[in-house]
Amino acid sequence: MDLAHCSLNSVTVKGAGLTEVADLAAQWGFGGVGLWRDVLDGVDLVDASARLRQSGLRVTSVCRGGMFPQPTARLRREATADNRVAVDQAHALGADCLVLVCGAAHGDLADARRQVRDGIAELEPYARQSGVRLAVEPMHPMMASSRSVITSLSEANDLVEAIGSDIVGIALDSYHVWWDAALPQQITRAGERLFSVQLADWVTPIHGELSSRGMPGEGCIDLTGFVADCRNTGGYAGLVEVEILSDRWWAADPKDAVHAAANGLAAV
Amino acid sequence: MDLAHCSLNSVTVKGAGLTEVADLAAQWGFGGVGLWRDVLDGVDLVDASARLRQSGLRVTSVCRGGMFPQPTARLRREATADNRVAVDQAHALGADCLVLVCGAAHGDLADARRQVRDGIAELEPYARQSGVRLAVEPMHPMMASSRSVITSLSEANDLVEAIGSDIVGIALDSYHVWWDAALPQQITRAGERLFSVQLADWVTPIHGELSSRGMPGEGCIDLTGFVADCRNTGGYAGLVEVEILSDRWWAADPKDAVHAAANGLAAV
Question: What CATH number did the domain enclosing A143 receive?
């Protein structure tokens, strides 16, 4: 892939601040950046947005809103307030979407899934007011008890269709969904609801289910086929993000991590 | 659960020989044992089968056959030969079923899934001759590159229905499938094809995707609901196995591991 069609997610170079992420992305010729909210702390977002535009960088995603299932009403209110801040940040940056990490089960899976559906439906009008698109990220089933009860693209498609809003779609990361026999058909089904496409590769053994990912090409996923499906049958026309949560790469110099990401993307 | 309705899988006390596994199961009042093939090495199976019967223990499963996808014709022939030995062992022990760990992808997932279907179809007549039932085990998606490309009960049901043999069914382990929104309906669909039901609990963080499991009650799975679904809508009437692959419990005394398993099962 041409890096102009790719976006560098800030977590790939965890520890780097917004300026460093943007500089690295621009130096390598990325077309955009995906931003975790930790790099937005204390940043003037109007100013940052202008500087990113001047560098020729889109903001492909802000990560994250979500965490809808909560054990108490107070915690649900806190999650709601935080999700509105996330919408405001995505709006200020003109991001393509706000990624929703929907939240894990505190006990009953079916109840957690109801809270996710209700939470997105409640957030939708607020996001619509500022023109921010919400992207449900189906996550690997090994994260069902820690990050998200939405564990497949089939399930995310069901959820998004049930909500039935043109600003609620899907963020699809190869790492979370590559194993699924139904993936090609579900990408076709998602179609114009694909708001974000992300790449990370699958490597084993898993040492911690959150941060054992590989750079494109380090693992076993057919990323070329995945991107082709998203482009051709899904019709996704946006930038493809590289988002690598990896204890191994986080221990490396950010420059080396971006170099490896760029090489991996070039081979897709 | 009454332990008379449960079975102790040998891997829960990895390192113990067949005699020790059987003695522990009998002492605690288990109704049966599930046997990994490592405990059968060098054992006279006719004699072992008679002794297990005398102890009042069924053999609920032999683990494992499978590993159908192989990169070369020679390795496929070796897998075929090994699977026939596994069928012979399950026959000699009068086991309820031979569990099939179907094998991982060496590259193309769809091709691996074809090799799984073809491999089971090829093994079926041999198993039928000796009356051994084959139980496809859907495994957690995090094992798709190391153990099995059959990653959900939906997929296992599709596979087993496509093969269409009354001796080819399913081994269902809570650990592998608990996250799946479609699980209750798929248990109903499996129905009389449920040849084996196994319990392990989900605990995080994952330290190695194969052996991070918890004893019943240590994790987040609604095991009571799972067993109820298998019994009521699935119609499963056999013994429920406790099969805990756990580096943590393997470091403990086998007596303590069985004690913990028995306590966990009693609370289900």
Answer: 3.20.20.150
